[in-house]
Amino acid sequence: MRIVFFGDSITDCERDRADETSLGNGYVKILADKLRPIYPDTDIELINKGISGNEVCDLLARVQKDVIDLRPDAVVMMIGINNTIHKFKYGKELNLKQFERDLTELLTRLKEAGIVVILLEPFLLPAPDKLRMRKLFNSELEIINRVGLKIADEYVAYDEMFNGLTQSIPYTEYSADGVHPTHRGSRLIADTAIKAIRKHLL
Question: Which residues of the chain fall below pLDDT 50?
């Protein structure tokens, strides 16, 4: 079974772009180390196609080459946080209607190619410099939730999960900057994503 991981820096996590077997040092690598021992007799190929800084439109632009052409059985995708961050960091406008169209087309193209789509919800933790982003990110999350639940085969919600945990544990335990997960945060992503993946293992 071939599974492609598709997304931004949270997926990329310093993978070696020159090495197709490189999984980076984030949740994808942790997930791989957990999944393979569970299915020692199953040929599972994991491919990391995350690229730091990507937005939904970037994934749409490269979905054919980086996912569909590889003919995977499943794609695990987390995307969306940069659409909000780039608005505040670079002044790049976030057109929510276009965002919804792009996300819908992205997921639809994957489904039409016969690929199981496991969508991982992006998250934003309450780092002081990220609080002003929350309102816009909530509007984006509404779209991701609606489109994901309609089209994806699995939808794993992380924003409420992480923010619920930070009611009793400092957010820095899971992400120093509110966006990029620590090792503990990456473990949590992997542990929950693997449950969704196992439902579709051939």
Answer: none
> Is-above-0.85 flag for pTM?
yes
Cβ-contact 115, 73 below 8 angstroms:
yes
3-state secondary structure the chain: CEEEEEECHHHHCCCCCCCCCCCCCCHHHHHHHHHHHHCCCCCCEEEEEECCCCCHHHHHHHHHHHCHHHCCCEEEEECCHHHHHHHHHHCCCCCHHHHHHHHHHHHHHHHHCCCEEEEECCCCCCCHHHHHHHHHHHHHHHHHHHHHHHHCCEEECCHHHHHHHCCCCCHHHCECCCCCECHHHHHHHHHHHHHHHHCCCC
